[in-house]
Amino acid sequence: MERRSLTATIFVYLAALLLAAVILAPVVWLFIMSISSTTDLITKPLRWWPETIDLSRYGVLLSTAANSAGEAFVASLFNSLKVAGMATAAALIVAIPAAWAVSRTPSVGWSLYAVIATYMLPPVALAVPLYMALSAFGLLNNVFGLALVYLTILAPFTTWLMKSGFDSIPREIESAATVDGARLDQILRLITLPLAAPVMATAALFAFLLAWDEFFYALLFTSDQRAKTLTVAIADLAGGRVSDYGLIATAGVLAALPPLIIGLFMQRALISGLTNGGVKG
Amino acid sequence: MTSNWITTRAWLLMLPLLIVMIAIIGWPLIDTVRLSFTDAKLVGTEGNFVGIDNYVKILSGSNFQRTLITTTLFAVLSVGAEMIIGVLAALLLNQQFYGRSVLRALMILPWALPTVVNATLWRLIYNPEYGALNAALTQIGMLDAYRSWLGEPGTALAALIVADCWKNFPLVALIALAALQAVPRDITAASMVDGAGAWSRFRFVIMPYLAGPLMVALVLRTIEAFKVFDIIWVMTRGGPANSTRTLSILVYQEAFSFQRAGSGASLALIVTLLVTILAVAYAALIRKSAGAS
Protein backbone atom coordinates (compact mmCIF):
# COMPACT_ATOMS: atom_id res chain seq x y z
CA MET A 1 0.00 0.00 0.00
CA GLU A 2 1.25 3.43 -0.97
CA ARG A 3 1.68 5.76 1.96
CA ARG A 4 1.55 9.49 1.42
CA SER A 5 3.28 12.17 3.37
CA LEU A 6 1.13 14.76 5.13
CA THR A 7 2.07 17.44 2.58
CA ALA A 8 1.09 15.16 -0.28
CA THR A 9 -2.25 14.43 1.38
CA ILE A 10 -2.97 18.13 1.88
CA PHE A 11 -2.02 18.77 -1.73
CA VAL A 12 -4.39 16.02 -2.95
CA TYR A 13 -7.30 17.48 -0.96
CA LEU A 14 -6.59 21.02 -2.15
CA ALA A 15 -6.44 19.84 -5.76
CA ALA A 16 -9.68 17.89 -5.32
CA LEU A 17 -11.39 20.98 -3.88
CA LEU A 18 -10.14 23.06 -6.80
CA LEU A 19 -11.39 20.51 -9.33
CA ALA A 20 -14.79 20.30 -7.63
CA ALA A 21 -15.05 24.11 -7.63
CA VAL A 22 -14.10 24.37 -11.31
CA ILE A 23 -16.68 21.75 -12.29
CA LEU A 24 -19.48 22.95 -10.04
CA ALA A 25 -19.22 26.75 -10.08
CA PRO A 26 -20.61 27.37 -13.61
CA VAL A 27 -23.45 24.84 -13.21
CA VAL A 28 -24.43 26.10 -9.77
CA TRP A 29 -24.29 29.69 -11.00
CA LEU A 30 -26.66 28.81 -13.87
CA PHE A 31 -29.11 27.47 -11.29
CA ILE A 32 -28.69 30.49 -8.97
CA MET A 33 -29.31 32.85 -11.89
CA SER A 34 -32.53 30.97 -12.67
CA ILE A 35 -33.92 31.53 -9.15
CA SER A 36 -32.64 35.08 -8.54
CA SER A 37 -34.88 38.09 -8.92
CA THR A 38 -33.97 40.38 -11.81
CA THR A 39 -32.88 43.15 -9.43
CA ASP A 40 -30.49 40.75 -7.67
CA LEU A 41 -28.91 39.85 -11.02
CA ILE A 42 -28.20 43.44 -12.05
CA THR A 43 -27.02 44.95 -8.77
CA LYS A 44 -23.42 46.02 -8.38
CA PRO A 45 -21.56 44.59 -6.60
CA LEU A 46 -23.22 41.41 -7.81
CA ARG A 47 -25.11 39.39 -5.18
CA TRP A 48 -23.99 35.75 -5.29
CA TRP A 49 -27.02 34.43 -3.46
CA PRO A 50 -30.43 36.02 -4.16
CA GLU A 51 -32.05 38.17 -1.50
CA THR A 52 -35.40 36.74 -2.51
CA ILE A 53 -35.76 33.39 -4.22
CA ASP A 54 -37.83 33.78 -7.34
CA LEU A 55 -39.14 30.58 -8.91
CA SER A 56 -41.67 32.35 -11.13
CA ARG A 57 -39.62 31.93 -14.32
CA TYR A 58 -40.07 28.16 -14.22
CA GLY A 59 -43.81 28.77 -14.20
CA VAL A 60 -43.49 31.31 -17.02
CA LEU A 61 -41.54 28.93 -19.27
CA LEU A 62 -43.71 25.91 -18.57
CA SER A 63 -47.03 27.67 -19.04
CA THR A 64 -48.87 27.12 -22.28
CA ALA A 65 -50.85 30.36 -22.44
CA ALA A 66 -51.21 31.60 -26.02
CA ASN A 67 -48.44 33.91 -27.34
CA SER A 68 -46.42 33.69 -24.12
CA ALA A 69 -42.70 32.96 -23.83
CA GLY A 70 -43.81 29.67 -22.31
CA GLU A 71 -45.83 28.63 -25.33
CA ALA A 72 -42.79 28.89 -27.62
CA PHE A 73 -40.57 27.16 -25.08
CA VAL A 74 -42.94 24.25 -24.46
CA ALA A 75 -43.43 23.84 -28.22
CA SER A 76 -39.67 23.62 -28.74
CA LEU A 77 -39.39 21.16 -25.85
CA PHE A 78 -41.93 18.86 -27.53
CA ASN A 79 -40.23 19.32 -30.91
CA SER A 80 -36.92 18.24 -29.40
CA LEU A 81 -38.57 15.20 -27.82
CA LYS A 82 -40.26 14.25 -31.09
CA VAL A 83 -37.21 14.74 -33.30
CA ALA A 84 -34.79 13.01 -30.93
CA GLY A 85 -37.23 10.17 -30.28
CA MET A 86 -38.02 9.52 -33.94
CA ALA A 87 -34.39 9.80 -35.04
CA THR A 88 -33.25 7.42 -32.29
CA ALA A 89 -35.92 4.83 -33.14
CA ALA A 90 -35.16 5.03 -36.87
CA ALA A 91 -31.41 4.80 -36.27
CA LEU A 92 -31.82 1.64 -34.16
CA ILE A 93 -34.13 0.05 -36.75
CA VAL A 94 -31.59 0.38 -39.55
CA ALA A 95 -28.49 -0.11 -37.35
CA ILE A 96 -29.37 -3.34 -35.54
CA PRO A 97 -29.68 -5.72 -38.53
CA ALA A 98 -26.68 -4.11 -40.23
CA ALA A 99 -24.54 -4.28 -37.09
CA TRP A 100 -25.44 -7.93 -36.52
CA ALA A 101 -24.66 -8.80 -40.15
CA VAL A 102 -21.25 -7.13 -39.99
CA SER A 103 -20.48 -8.70 -36.63
CA ARG A 104 -21.25 -12.25 -37.89
CA THR A 105 -20.00 -11.87 -41.48
CA PRO A 106 -16.46 -10.46 -41.45
CA SER A 107 -16.28 -10.50 -45.25
CA VAL A 108 -18.62 -7.48 -45.44
CA GLY A 109 -16.84 -5.65 -42.61
CA TRP A 110 -15.24 -3.09 -44.89
CA SER A 111 -18.65 -1.53 -45.51
CA LEU A 112 -18.83 -0.70 -41.81
CA TYR A 113 -15.65 1.35 -42.07
CA ALA A 114 -17.23 3.29 -44.91
CA VAL A 115 -20.23 4.00 -42.69
CA ILE A 116 -18.07 5.02 -39.72
CA ALA A 117 -15.92 7.26 -41.91
CA THR A 118 -19.00 9.34 -42.71
CA TYR A 119 -19.22 10.16 -39.00
CA MET A 120 -16.11 12.32 -39.44
CA LEU A 121 -17.73 14.39 -42.21
CA PRO A 122 -18.34 17.99 -41.22
CA PRO A 123 -22.10 18.71 -41.43
CA VAL A 124 -21.35 21.68 -43.70
CA ALA A 125 -20.35 19.19 -46.43
CA LEU A 126 -23.96 17.97 -46.64
CA ALA A 127 -25.91 21.05 -45.58
CA VAL A 128 -26.51 22.77 -48.93
CA PRO A 129 -27.94 19.78 -50.90
CA LEU A 130 -29.92 18.68 -47.83
CA TYR A 131 -31.44 22.15 -47.58
CA MET A 132 -32.37 22.13 -51.27
CA ALA A 133 -33.83 18.61 -51.05
CA LEU A 134 -35.87 19.31 -47.90
CA SER A 135 -37.16 22.45 -49.54
CA ALA A 136 -38.12 20.53 -52.71
CA PHE A 137 -40.04 17.91 -50.70
CA GLY A 138 -41.69 20.51 -48.46
CA LEU A 139 -39.88 19.16 -45.40
CA LEU A 140 -38.20 22.37 -44.27
CA ASN A 141 -39.39 23.47 -40.84
CA ASN A 142 -40.79 19.98 -40.26
CA VAL A 143 -39.99 17.57 -37.41
CA PHE A 144 -39.96 14.55 -39.78
CA GLY A 145 -37.51 16.27 -42.12
CA LEU A 146 -35.21 17.19 -39.25
CA ALA A 147 -35.37 13.67 -37.77
CA LEU A 148 -34.44 12.27 -41.19
CA VAL A 149 -31.43 14.60 -41.38
CA TYR A 150 -30.38 13.57 -37.85
CA LEU A 151 -29.97 10.02 -39.15
CA THR A 152 -26.80 11.26 -40.89
CA ILE A 153 -25.31 11.50 -37.38
CA LEU A 154 -27.18 8.82 -35.44
CA ALA A 155 -27.16 5.91 -37.93
CA PRO A 156 -23.35 5.52 -38.28
CA PHE A 157 -22.90 6.07 -34.56
CA THR A 158 -25.45 3.48 -33.39
CA THR A 159 -24.24 0.93 -35.97
CA TRP A 160 -20.73 1.27 -34.59
CA LEU A 161 -21.88 0.83 -30.95
CA MET A 162 -24.20 -2.08 -31.77
CA LYS A 163 -21.52 -3.87 -33.78
CA SER A 164 -19.13 -3.93 -30.82
CA GLY A 165 -22.08 -5.04 -28.68
CA PHE A 166 -22.84 -8.03 -30.92
CA ASP A 167 -19.12 -8.83 -31.07
CA SER A 168 -19.16 -9.46 -27.32
CA ILE A 169 -21.98 -12.04 -27.62
CA PRO A 170 -20.38 -15.41 -28.45
CA ARG A 171 -21.56 -16.71 -31.81
CA GLU A 172 -21.38 -20.26 -30.42
CA ILE A 173 -24.70 -19.62 -28.67
CA GLU A 174 -26.27 -18.89 -32.04
CA SER A 175 -24.74 -21.92 -33.76
CA ALA A 176 -25.91 -24.18 -30.94
CA ALA A 177 -29.46 -22.97 -31.51
CA THR A 178 -29.08 -23.55 -35.25
CA VAL A 179 -28.08 -27.14 -34.55
CA ASP A 180 -31.21 -27.48 -32.42
CA GLY A 181 -33.22 -26.47 -35.48
CA ALA A 182 -34.07 -22.85 -34.69
CA ARG A 183 -34.67 -20.49 -37.59
CA LEU A 184 -32.66 -17.28 -37.94
CA ASP A 185 -35.53 -15.02 -36.91
CA GLN A 186 -36.12 -17.18 -33.81
CA ILE A 187 -32.43 -17.02 -32.89
CA LEU A 188 -32.35 -13.26 -33.20
CA ARG A 189 -35.65 -12.69 -31.40
CA LEU A 190 -35.19 -15.19 -28.58
CA ILE A 191 -31.42 -15.25 -28.03
CA THR A 192 -29.33 -12.51 -29.58
CA LEU A 193 -31.50 -9.44 -29.13
CA PRO A 194 -32.32 -10.13 -25.45
CA LEU A 195 -28.61 -10.59 -24.79
CA ALA A 196 -27.88 -7.35 -26.64
CA ALA A 197 -30.56 -5.40 -24.74
CA PRO A 198 -28.12 -3.51 -22.45
CA VAL A 199 -26.04 -2.40 -25.46
CA MET A 200 -29.21 -1.35 -27.27
CA ALA A 201 -30.24 0.73 -24.27
CA THR A 202 -26.83 2.43 -24.15
CA ALA A 203 -26.88 3.06 -27.89
CA ALA A 204 -30.40 4.49 -27.67
CA LEU A 205 -29.41 6.81 -24.80
CA PHE A 206 -26.31 8.05 -26.59
CA ALA A 207 -28.27 8.59 -29.80
CA PHE A 208 -31.00 10.47 -27.94
CA LEU A 209 -28.43 12.71 -26.23
CA LEU A 210 -26.70 13.42 -29.57
CA ALA A 211 -30.00 14.42 -31.16
CA TRP A 212 -31.05 16.47 -28.10
CA ASP A 213 -27.73 18.35 -28.32
CA GLU A 214 -27.79 18.96 -32.09
CA PHE A 215 -27.85 22.60 -33.16
CA PHE A 216 -26.39 23.19 -36.65
CA TYR A 217 -29.01 21.37 -38.75
CA ALA A 218 -31.83 22.56 -36.49
CA LEU A 219 -30.69 26.17 -36.96
CA LEU A 220 -30.64 25.75 -40.74
CA PHE A 221 -33.76 23.69 -41.31
CA THR A 222 -36.31 25.04 -38.82
CA SER A 223 -37.82 28.50 -38.58
CA ASP A 224 -40.77 28.58 -36.19
CA GLN A 225 -42.69 26.82 -33.42
CA ARG A 226 -43.76 24.02 -35.72
CA ALA A 227 -40.29 22.48 -35.72
CA LYS A 228 -37.79 24.66 -33.82
CA THR A 229 -35.94 22.56 -31.28
CA LEU A 230 -34.88 23.48 -27.77
CA THR A 231 -31.28 24.27 -28.75
CA VAL A 232 -32.42 26.79 -31.35
CA ALA A 233 -34.97 28.28 -28.94
CA ILE A 234 -32.25 28.80 -26.33
CA ALA A 235 -29.83 30.29 -28.84
CA ASP A 236 -32.63 32.68 -29.86
CA LEU A 237 -33.14 33.69 -26.24
CA ALA A 238 -29.39 34.16 -25.65
CA GLY A 239 -28.85 36.11 -28.84
CA GLY A 240 -32.06 38.12 -28.78
CA ARG A 241 -33.08 41.18 -26.86
CA VAL A 242 -34.28 39.35 -23.78
CA SER A 243 -33.24 41.56 -20.89
CA ASP A 244 -34.08 39.04 -18.18
CA TYR A 245 -30.91 36.99 -17.85
CA GLY A 246 -32.67 34.81 -15.31
CA LEU A 247 -35.14 33.67 -17.94
CA ILE A 248 -32.30 32.61 -20.25
CA ALA A 249 -30.71 30.72 -17.36
CA THR A 250 -34.01 29.01 -16.52
CA ALA A 251 -34.39 27.83 -20.11
CA GLY A 252 -30.83 26.48 -19.88
CA VAL A 253 -31.55 24.60 -16.65
CA LEU A 254 -34.70 23.03 -18.09
CA ALA A 255 -32.95 21.97 -21.32
CA ALA A 256 -30.01 20.56 -19.37
CA LEU A 257 -32.12 18.56 -16.90
CA PRO A 258 -32.89 15.48 -19.06
CA PRO A 259 -29.28 14.87 -20.16
CA LEU A 260 -27.93 15.65 -16.67
CA ILE A 261 -30.32 13.16 -15.09
CA ILE A 262 -29.50 10.53 -17.71
CA GLY A 263 -25.80 11.28 -17.22
CA LEU A 264 -25.84 10.96 -13.43
CA PHE A 265 -28.01 7.87 -13.23
CA MET A 266 -26.59 6.01 -16.19
CA GLN A 267 -23.06 6.88 -15.28
CA ARG A 268 -21.58 3.42 -15.37
CA ALA A 269 -23.09 2.56 -18.76
CA LEU A 270 -22.11 5.92 -20.22
CA ILE A 271 -18.52 5.79 -19.00
CA SER A 272 -17.99 2.24 -20.22
CA GLY A 273 -19.53 3.26 -23.54
CA LEU A 274 -17.26 6.29 -23.77
CA THR A 275 -14.11 4.45 -22.85
CA ASN A 276 -14.87 1.37 -24.96
CA GLY A 277 -15.58 3.58 -27.92
CA GLY A 278 -12.43 5.49 -27.09
CA VAL A 279 -10.19 2.47 -26.68
CA LYS A 280 -11.44 0.43 -29.58
CA GLY A 281 -11.58 3.38 -31.97
CA MET B 1 -25.70 -22.98 -45.54
CA THR B 2 -23.27 -21.93 -48.23
CA SER B 3 -20.94 -19.03 -47.67
CA ASN B 4 -22.51 -17.39 -50.70
CA TRP B 5 -25.90 -17.33 -49.04
CA ILE B 6 -24.38 -16.00 -45.81
CA THR B 7 -22.79 -13.09 -47.67
CA THR B 8 -26.01 -12.36 -49.53
CA ARG B 9 -27.95 -12.50 -46.28
CA ALA B 10 -25.50 -10.04 -44.72
CA TRP B 11 -26.00 -7.59 -47.57
CA LEU B 12 -29.78 -7.96 -47.31
CA LEU B 13 -29.66 -7.15 -43.59
CA MET B 14 -27.49 -4.14 -44.32
CA LEU B 15 -29.74 -2.90 -47.10
CA PRO B 16 -31.92 -0.52 -45.02
CA LEU B 17 -28.83 1.16 -43.51
CA LEU B 18 -27.11 1.41 -46.89
CA ILE B 19 -30.17 2.91 -48.59
CA VAL B 20 -30.50 5.54 -45.84
CA MET B 21 -26.78 6.32 -45.93
CA ILE B 22 -26.75 6.72 -49.71
CA ALA B 23 -29.86 8.91 -49.67
CA ILE B 24 -28.85 11.31 -46.90
CA ILE B 25 -25.03 11.20 -46.98
CA GLY B 26 -23.76 9.76 -50.27
CA TRP B 27 -26.01 11.69 -52.60
CA PRO B 28 -25.71 15.07 -50.78
CA LEU B 29 -21.92 14.72 -50.73
CA ILE B 30 -21.82 14.11 -54.48
CA ASP B 31 -24.22 16.99 -55.04
CA THR B 32 -21.97 19.25 -52.97
CA VAL B 33 -19.12 18.35 -55.32
CA ARG B 34 -21.30 19.20 -58.34
CA LEU B 35 -22.44 22.50 -56.80
CA SER B 36 -18.87 23.49 -55.97
CA PHE B 37 -18.17 23.87 -59.72
CA THR B 38 -21.18 26.14 -60.27
CA ASP B 39 -22.29 29.62 -59.29
CA ALA B 40 -25.65 28.31 -57.98
CA LYS B 41 -27.65 30.35 -55.49
CA LEU B 42 -29.29 28.69 -52.50
CA VAL B 43 -32.78 29.60 -53.73
CA GLY B 44 -33.83 30.13 -57.34
CA THR B 45 -31.09 29.92 -59.96
CA GLU B 46 -29.61 26.54 -60.82
CA GLY B 47 -26.29 28.19 -61.66
CA ASN B 48 -23.81 27.69 -64.46
CA PHE B 49 -20.67 25.59 -64.62
CA VAL B 50 -17.75 27.80 -63.65
CA GLY B 51 -14.93 25.25 -63.42
CA ILE B 52 -12.55 25.74 -60.52
CA ASP B 53 -13.28 29.47 -60.19
CA ASN B 54 -14.83 29.08 -56.71
CA TYR B 55 -11.79 27.19 -55.41
CA VAL B 56 -9.32 29.71 -56.86
CA LYS B 57 -11.23 32.63 -55.33
CA ILE B 58 -11.49 30.99 -51.91
CA LEU B 59 -7.90 29.80 -51.66
CA SER B 60 -6.48 33.14 -52.76
CA GLY B 61 -8.83 35.18 -50.56
CA SER B 62 -7.68 36.62 -47.25
CA ASN B 63 -10.95 35.58 -45.57
CA PHE B 64 -10.19 31.89 -45.95
CA GLN B 65 -6.58 32.19 -44.86
CA ARG B 66 -7.44 34.18 -41.77
CA THR B 67 -10.28 31.81 -40.88
CA LEU B 68 -8.01 28.79 -41.30
CA ILE B 69 -5.54 30.34 -38.85
CA THR B 70 -8.32 31.11 -36.33
CA THR B 71 -9.67 27.55 -36.62
CA THR B 72 -6.23 26.00 -36.17
CA LEU B 73 -5.54 28.24 -33.19
CA PHE B 74 -8.85 27.31 -31.59
CA ALA B 75 -8.33 23.57 -32.20
CA VAL B 76 -4.71 23.44 -31.01
CA LEU B 77 -5.19 25.59 -27.91
CA SER B 78 -8.48 24.13 -26.71
CA VAL B 79 -7.58 20.49 -27.39
CA GLY B 80 -4.09 21.00 -25.95
CA ALA B 81 -5.50 22.50 -22.75
CA GLU B 82 -8.16 19.77 -22.53
CA MET B 83 -5.56 17.01 -22.80
CA ILE B 84 -3.26 18.53 -20.15
CA ILE B 85 -6.01 19.41 -17.66
CA GLY B 86 -7.79 16.12 -18.39
CA VAL B 87 -4.71 14.02 -17.62
CA LEU B 88 -3.97 16.02 -14.46
CA ALA B 89 -7.56 15.56 -13.29
CA ALA B 90 -7.35 11.81 -14.03
CA LEU B 91 -4.09 11.48 -12.05
CA LEU B 92 -5.82 13.22 -9.14
CA LEU B 93 -8.92 11.02 -9.37
CA ASN B 94 -6.69 7.95 -9.37
CA GLN B 95 -5.46 8.90 -5.85
CA GLN B 96 -7.30 7.80 -2.74
CA PHE B 97 -9.22 10.46 -0.85
CA TYR B 98 -12.60 10.95 0.79
CA GLY B 99 -15.24 12.04 -1.69
CA ARG B 100 -13.43 10.59 -4.68
CA SER B 101 -16.45 8.76 -6.07
CA VAL B 102 -18.61 11.89 -5.69
CA LEU B 103 -16.03 13.97 -7.55
CA ARG B 104 -15.81 11.34 -10.27
CA ALA B 105 -19.60 11.41 -10.64
CA LEU B 106 -19.52 15.21 -10.94
CA MET B 107 -17.17 14.96 -13.92
CA ILE B 108 -20.13 13.86 -16.02
CA LEU B 109 -21.88 17.24 -15.52
CA PRO B 110 -20.02 19.39 -18.10
CA TRP B 111 -20.06 16.55 -20.60
CA ALA B 112 -23.83 16.06 -20.23
CA LEU B 113 -24.66 19.78 -20.39
CA PRO B 114 -25.92 20.48 -23.95
CA THR B 115 -23.39 22.45 -26.01
CA VAL B 116 -25.82 25.29 -26.61
CA VAL B 117 -26.65 25.55 -22.89
CA ASN B 118 -22.92 25.60 -22.12
CA ALA B 119 -22.40 28.40 -24.65
CA THR B 120 -25.35 30.36 -23.24
CA LEU B 121 -24.10 29.88 -19.70
CA TRP B 122 -20.62 31.22 -20.51
CA ARG B 123 -22.11 34.05 -22.50
CA LEU B 124 -23.93 35.10 -19.33
CA ILE B 125 -20.77 34.67 -17.24
CA TYR B 126 -18.82 36.91 -19.65
CA ASN B 127 -21.61 39.51 -19.85
CA PRO B 128 -19.97 42.98 -20.00
CA GLU B 129 -22.41 44.69 -17.60
CA TYR B 130 -23.71 42.06 -15.20
CA GLY B 131 -21.54 39.01 -15.81
CA ALA B 132 -20.19 36.88 -12.99
CA LEU B 133 -16.59 36.97 -14.26
CA ASN B 134 -16.44 40.79 -14.14
CA ALA B 135 -18.10 40.80 -10.73
CA ALA B 136 -15.81 38.14 -9.27
CA LEU B 137 -12.59 39.67 -10.61
CA THR B 138 -13.60 43.16 -9.46
CA GLN B 139 -14.65 41.99 -6.02
CA ILE B 140 -11.31 40.28 -5.36
CA GLY B 141 -9.49 43.31 -6.76
CA MET B 142 -7.95 41.74 -9.87
CA LEU B 143 -9.87 43.99 -12.24
CA ASP B 144 -10.45 47.77 -12.06
CA ALA B 145 -13.27 48.17 -14.57
CA TYR B 146 -15.74 45.77 -16.16
CA ARG B 147 -14.62 44.40 -19.51
CA SER B 148 -16.44 43.08 -22.54
CA TRP B 149 -14.72 39.68 -22.75
CA LEU B 150 -16.57 38.54 -25.86
CA GLY B 151 -16.73 42.02 -27.38
CA GLU B 152 -13.00 42.66 -27.74
CA PRO B 153 -11.01 40.90 -30.49
CA GLY B 154 -8.12 40.45 -28.05
CA THR B 155 -10.02 38.33 -25.52
CA ALA B 156 -12.96 36.78 -27.42
CA LEU B 157 -11.12 33.73 -28.76
CA ALA B 158 -9.47 33.02 -25.41
CA ALA B 159 -12.85 33.32 -23.67
CA LEU B 160 -14.33 30.81 -26.13
CA ILE B 161 -11.45 28.41 -25.58
CA VAL B 162 -12.00 28.49 -21.80
CA ALA B 163 -15.71 27.69 -22.28
CA ASP B 164 -14.96 24.84 -24.71
CA CYS B 165 -12.23 23.47 -22.49
CA TRP B 166 -14.48 23.44 -19.41
CA LYS B 167 -17.03 21.33 -21.28
CA ASN B 168 -14.61 18.86 -22.81
CA PHE B 169 -11.72 18.24 -20.39
CA PRO B 170 -13.84 15.93 -18.17
CA LEU B 171 -14.28 13.53 -21.11
CA VAL B 172 -10.50 13.33 -21.55
CA ALA B 173 -10.18 12.88 -17.79
CA LEU B 174 -12.66 9.96 -17.73
CA ILE B 175 -10.92 8.23 -20.64
CA ALA B 176 -7.51 8.74 -19.03
CA LEU B 177 -8.82 7.55 -15.66
CA ALA B 178 -10.12 4.30 -17.19
CA ALA B 179 -6.65 3.76 -18.69
CA LEU B 180 -4.90 4.56 -15.38
CA GLN B 181 -6.97 1.98 -13.57
CA ALA B 182 -5.57 -0.64 -15.92
CA VAL B 183 -2.01 0.04 -14.67
CA PRO B 184 -1.09 -2.91 -12.42
CA ARG B 185 -0.41 -1.77 -8.84
CA ASP B 186 2.71 -3.96 -8.45
CA ILE B 187 4.39 -2.22 -11.39
CA THR B 188 4.09 1.23 -9.81
CA ALA B 189 5.11 -0.23 -6.46
CA ALA B 190 8.14 -1.95 -7.98
CA SER B 191 9.23 1.23 -9.73
CA MET B 192 9.06 3.08 -6.39
CA VAL B 193 11.20 0.42 -4.75
CA ASP B 194 13.65 0.89 -7.61
CA GLY B 195 13.76 4.57 -6.67
CA ALA B 196 11.92 6.07 -9.62
CA GLY B 197 10.85 9.68 -8.99
CA ALA B 198 7.36 10.96 -9.63
CA TRP B 199 8.18 12.26 -13.11
CA SER B 200 10.03 9.19 -14.37
CA ARG B 201 7.30 6.99 -12.89
CA PHE B 202 4.74 8.95 -14.92
CA ARG B 203 6.87 9.02 -18.06
CA PHE B 204 8.06 5.39 -18.16
CA VAL B 205 5.57 3.39 -16.11
CA ILE B 206 2.20 5.09 -16.49
CA MET B 207 2.48 6.83 -19.86
CA PRO B 208 2.65 3.62 -21.94
CA TYR B 209 -0.77 2.65 -20.58
CA LEU B 210 -2.19 6.12 -21.25
CA ALA B 211 -0.76 6.70 -24.73
CA GLY B 212 -3.21 4.61 -26.77
CA PRO B 213 -6.52 5.83 -25.30
CA LEU B 214 -5.22 9.41 -25.11
CA MET B 215 -4.21 9.31 -28.76
CA VAL B 216 -7.73 8.28 -29.73
CA ALA B 217 -9.21 11.04 -27.54
CA LEU B 218 -6.81 13.50 -29.18
CA VAL B 219 -7.88 12.45 -32.67
CA LEU B 220 -11.59 12.68 -31.95
CA ARG B 221 -11.34 15.97 -30.07
CA THR B 222 -9.12 17.60 -32.73
CA ILE B 223 -11.51 16.67 -35.52
CA GLU B 224 -14.45 17.94 -33.46
CA ALA B 225 -12.63 21.19 -32.65
CA PHE B 226 -11.74 21.71 -36.29
CA LYS B 227 -15.43 21.44 -37.24
CA VAL B 228 -16.55 23.70 -34.36
CA PHE B 229 -19.74 25.68 -34.97
CA ASP B 230 -22.30 25.60 -32.11
CA ILE B 231 -20.39 27.18 -29.26
CA ILE B 232 -19.00 29.96 -31.45
CA TRP B 233 -22.30 30.71 -33.15
CA VAL B 234 -24.11 31.09 -29.82
CA MET B 235 -21.38 33.09 -28.06
CA THR B 236 -20.00 35.44 -30.74
CA ARG B 237 -21.33 34.49 -34.21
CA GLY B 238 -17.71 34.75 -35.36
CA GLY B 239 -17.25 38.34 -34.13
CA PRO B 240 -16.03 40.81 -33.00
CA ALA B 241 -14.41 41.92 -36.25
CA ASN B 242 -14.38 38.25 -37.39
CA SER B 243 -11.78 37.45 -34.71
CA THR B 244 -13.53 34.18 -33.76
CA ARG B 245 -14.75 33.16 -37.20
CA THR B 246 -13.93 29.51 -37.83
CA LEU B 247 -14.25 27.53 -41.08
CA SER B 248 -17.73 26.14 -40.34
CA ILE B 249 -18.98 29.66 -39.53
CA LEU B 250 -17.50 30.91 -42.80
CA VAL B 251 -19.28 28.15 -44.76
CA TYR B 252 -22.54 29.03 -43.01
CA GLN B 253 -22.17 32.71 -43.90
CA GLU B 254 -21.22 32.02 -47.51
CA ALA B 255 -23.87 29.39 -48.27
CA PHE B 256 -26.76 30.50 -46.07
CA SER B 257 -26.35 34.17 -45.08
CA PHE B 258 -25.16 35.25 -48.55
CA GLN B 259 -27.01 32.34 -50.22
CA ARG B 260 -24.01 31.57 -52.49
CA ALA B 261 -24.55 27.80 -52.62
CA GLY B 262 -21.81 27.25 -55.21
CA SER B 263 -18.88 28.83 -53.44
CA GLY B 264 -20.27 27.70 -50.07
CA ALA B 265 -20.10 24.12 -51.37
CA SER B 266 -16.49 24.48 -52.53
CA LEU B 267 -15.53 25.95 -49.17
CA ALA B 268 -17.30 23.07 -47.42
CA LEU B 269 -15.33 20.57 -49.51
CA ILE B 270 -12.05 22.27 -48.65
CA VAL B 271 -12.97 21.91 -44.96
CA THR B 272 -13.90 18.25 -45.56
CA LEU B 273 -10.56 17.64 -47.24
CA LEU B 274 -8.68 19.20 -44.31
CA VAL B 275 -10.63 17.08 -41.80
CA THR B 276 -9.94 13.96 -43.90
CA ILE B 277 -6.22 14.70 -43.98
CA LEU B 278 -6.28 15.10 -40.18
CA ALA B 279 -8.14 11.82 -39.75
CA VAL B 280 -5.87 9.85 -42.08
CA ALA B 281 -2.69 11.29 -40.56
CA TYR B 282 -3.91 10.43 -37.07
CA ALA B 283 -4.97 6.92 -38.10
CA ALA B 284 -1.44 6.31 -39.41
CA LEU B 285 0.00 7.74 -36.19
CA ILE B 286 -2.17 5.45 -34.06
CA ARG B 287 -1.22 2.39 -36.05
CA LYS B 288 2.45 3.34 -35.68
CA SER B 289 2.25 3.87 -31.92
CA ALA B 290 0.25 0.65 -31.54
CA GLY B 291 2.95 -1.20 -33.47
CA ALA B 292 5.74 0.32 -31.38
CA SER B 293 4.39 -0.65 -27.97
Average pLDDT of chain A: 87
Which structural category fits the helices and strands of chain B?
Answer: mainly alpha
The structure class of chain A reads: mainly alpha
Largest sheet report of chain B: none
Label the overall shape of chain A: globular
Describe this structure in words.
The complex is a heterodimer of chains A (281) and B (293). With 281 residues, chain A is mainly α. Chain A is built from 14 helices and no strands. Chain A starts with 5 loop residues before the first helix and ends with a helix. Mean pLDDT of chain A is 87; it is low at 277-281. The radius of gyration of chain B is 24 Å and the shape is globular. The model of chain B has no long low-confidence stretch (mean pLDDT 89). In chain B, helix 1 (3-36) packs across helix 13 (261-292) and helix 12 packs antiparallel against helix 13 (261-292). Chain B has 293 residues and is mostly helical. Chain B has one domain: MetI-like fold, CATH 1.10.3720. Chain B is built from 13 helices and no strands. Chain B has helices at residues 3-36, 53-60, 62-93, 100-106, 108-112, 115-125, 132-139, 153-180, 185-193, 198-226, 230-235, 247-257, 261-292. Chains A and B meet through helix 1, helix 4, helix 5, helix 6 and helix 7 of A and helix 1, helix 4, helix 5, helix 6 and helix 7 of B.
Topology overview:
The complex is a heterodimer of chains A (281) and B (293).
Chain A (H helix, E strand, L loop, with lengths): L5 H30 L2 H4 L14 H7 L6 H36 L4 H9 L6 H13 L6 H25 L3 H9 L4 H12 L1 H17 L2 H6 L8 H10 L5 H21 L1 H14 L1
Chain B lengths: L2 H34 L16 H8 L1 H32 L6 H7 L1 H5 L2 H11 L6 H8 L13 H28 L4 H9 L4 H29 L3 H6 L11 H11 L3 H32 L1
Compose a concise summary of this entry.
Chain A is mostly helical. Helices cover 76% and strands 0% of the residues of chain A.
